[in-house]
Amino acid sequence: MKIRVSKSISERELPLQLNISFQKIFELFQKYANIQFIDHPFHESAKKIVQNFENYPELISGFSDISFLEKYKEQIDLVLNPLFPEPLLLNEIKAASIPFSFTSFKFTDRFESIIKNAGESYELDVRNFEDGGMYIMACTFILSFVYDYNVDLKRPFYFDIPDKTSGTMKYYRATFNADFSEITATKNAPIITEKDFKELLNNFDNIDLWKEKFPPNSYIFKGFGLINLFDVTAEEMLSSIKANLLAGGTQLIANLQSNLRDFYSIKDLKLGYSIFDNINTKICETVVKKSNSIILNNQTEIKCDSNYFCAGILQKVFKNHETFIISDVEEYGLSTNKNPFYQNLKLLDINSIILIPIKATKNGDLALLEIASPRAYELNSVNINKLKEIIPVFEAAVKRSAEERQNVLEATIQENYTSIHSSVKWRFYQAAEKYFVESQTNENAKLDEIIFNDVYPLFGQSDIKGSSEARNIAIKQDLITQLSLAINVLKDACKSEALPIYDELRFRVAAYLSDVKEGLNAGDEITILDFLKREIYPVFNHIKTINNELFEKVEFYIKRLDSDLGVVYEKRKEYETSVNHLNDKLAKFIDKKQIQAQEMYPHYFERYKTDGVEFNMYIGESITKENSFDDVYLYNLRLWQLQIMCEMENIAFSERKNMASDLRVASLILVHSNPMAIKFRMDEKQFDVDGAYNIRYEIIKKRIDKANIKGTNERLTVPGKIAIVYSQEKDALEYLKYISYLQSKNQLGKVENLVLEDLQGVAGLKALRVEVMYHKDFNVKNTITFNDLIKEIEG
């Protein structure tokens, strides 16, 4: 008889004194030892057991010293044998046990084997049952045994027992038989009344109350129990798989893989997941890490055709949406001439695999569940049936995942491709809700106009200076290169084949080249390219056939052309790449900073990329749902805007070293003191100013960067300086305070007070133009903080 102590009784506080006694089973043997059962088959053996037990009265009266189990193990083993019939020892998982401590002292053979496979360090202990819960459980037993109060606490006991032989975890549910035990109250045990019972029912988790009603060691347990375990690994894994699928999360595949390893008792089972894109007929990377896909094997995507898969997989999985099982990958390789799919499986040391297709979207996209083992026949057509119960849950999880993915895509579109900013989205929902309600009863229901009244505008731009001229120079340089290359081909052709047509064409190309060098006019590029296409390229096709040297000359010319545009696109590409690089840097910076600015007070923000970046902001009470607007928020946003322009200037300056083209930006801020209304234009899907008076503001925005300083030919906007345009002196005084603050932070330098030339339809504008202080070690992470700006405004 083996004894296993899960946790010492002395370490676990209980309302019970645990005394091990075999009195009740002794009384059963006494019954059969009685003379009236003389003809019963148990009579003689019962007499011997009774005689034997009478020599050890402590086995009847009871003991709490665990060492007595070892001392009397032969006698205990003998008396318990009838409860452990030999025919059932290999099948039943049963042990004699002391309740609430799970110290066990007699096991069936199967139970002993399970404990042995768990390893020497394993202790038999119940899952998720803290000492407080065990104490209350003991109290409910007392209520039932002693006071006949039934408490429906049907909480099963579970044991998680590792199996070292398979490297997996096994799960068992326990039942406890207390027929051979009794509970009695000591003289110190408080009497439990019906009032006490009701109070306990309303305070189940109050361990202090339970200890008050059932003090530690105030009752005596006498006897032993029988514990039976039932293997519920399959049920537990199914439940866990369902829970994990419903929970989702970044660890979903890892959790499911662990579940399936226990479920199939395969310690190195692999689980993969990929998406079959029905539109593009390819298996592509999912939102889960692509390394989780066995089929992809760290590729971004694979073409789903007969060059990769066999016809059976294409038909059964991707067309019929049926499960496909390869029990022996080697055999599969022989039947498919070792196709790429087989080769991929062998690289991953996979020798059996199950592919389970699950419909993910209405357009026929499939989620492909991949279950694999390194050994042949471990996964087969028989054990696939174990998954039947959870495949519907897989389907529900996949559909939910697809819906979540669709929501993310829609949110991305909403955020990046439409003009509905988060600060005003509430108003659109309000209008949509109203329209929905009205449309239920009125077929002529109309959507509300979205208008925000009394908002203050802020406009800023960091424009790449001389972008049109720089782009024209790049076009000119590329045309010069292309025409020069064409002349070289014709010149070499004359040497090999003295045809007058070559000289004539060379003359005409040279004439175009001369014109381009003198200057490029509108339409020149199209004219030249049309000439090359119609008259030069057909001749080049002939020149290629003359000899290998001319073939290589023509090929060299062709290689210098952009494959999509058919022109030399080298300088323009350098310029466009530089413009895009700078635009992205500035746009990402202001987008990130704008999120922080929203924390001050919600306001509308929109940003555009041109040759540079420009942005509009509107702030006012109508944009929020709360009556909380104050002028201090407008002042703070203006200071924030000026600070951001300084930082964007520094970003543009520091990025010059990272661009092939040397680009500079010129920055401008337009100040408008009077509130206005903005309206969402349904046809243009964007906000615009509303009302004839406010149109003047839009006219100024479009023309101001072309303005000159009055009495000069000098442009207002120049690199290295920020121009602040205003019409009222109070605005200049306000911004001079902000400039002074930023000068103290070494962000801005000297200030100029300027009067601007009148624009068409606009007169009387003035400007402050302030020098930007560039910093060689500029770092966007070390800029003036939002809190600094708030302190400046409040100060």
How does this structure look, described?
By secondary structure, this protein is of the alpha+beta class. Helices cover 43% and strands 19% of the residues. The protein contains 25 helices and 23 strands. The strands form 4 sheets. Strands 15, 16, 17, 18, 19, 20, 21, 22 and 23 form a 9-stranded mixed β-sheet that branches. Strands 11-10-9-14-13-12 form a 6-stranded antiparallel β-sheet. Strands 3-2-8-5-4 form a 5-stranded antiparallel β-sheet, sandwiched between helices. Helix 17 packs antiparallel against helix 21 and helix 21 packs antiparallel against helix 22 (631-654). It is elongated, with a radius of gyration of 43 Å. Mean pLDDT is 85; it is low at 285-291.
**Poorly predicted residue ranges:** 285-291
Shape: elongated
Main pleated-sheet profile: 9 strands, mixed
Helix content, binned percent: 40-55%
Strand content: 15-25%
Q: Would you tell me the structural class of the helices and strands?
A: alpha+beta
What is the CA-atom radius of gyration, in angstroms?
A: 43 Å
Mean pLDDT score: 85
Terminus-to-terminus distance: 84 Å
Query: How many DSSP E strands?
Result: 23
Number of helices: 25
Give the secondary structure arrangement, pairings included.
Layout: E1 16-20, H1 23-33, H2 43-53, H3 58-61, H4 67-71, H5 73-80, E2 93-98, E3 103-107, H6 109-118, H7 131-145, E4 157-163, E5 168-177, E6 181-185, H8 194-201, H9 207-213, E7 219-223, E8 225-231, H10 233-247, H11 252-264, E9 270-277, E10 282-284, E11 301-303, H12 311-319, E12 324-326, H13 329-335, H14 340-347, E13 352-359, E14 366-373, H15 391-417, H16 425-439, E15 451-464, H17 467-496, H18 500-518, H19 524-543, H20 548-559, H21 571-598, E16 604-610, E17 612-619, H22 631-654, E18 665-671, E19 676-681, E20 686-690, H23 695-703, E21 721-726, H24 729-744, E22 748-755, E23 766-772, H25 786-794
Parallel strand pairs: 1-7, 18-21
Antiparallel strand pairs: 2-3, 2-8, 4-5, 5-8, 6-7, 9-10, 9-14, 10-11, 12-13, 13-14, 15-17, 15-18, 15-19, 16-17, 19-20, 21-23, 22-23
Helix pairs in contact: 1-2, 10-11, 13-14, 17-18, 17-19, 17-20, 17-21, 21-22, 22-24, 22-25
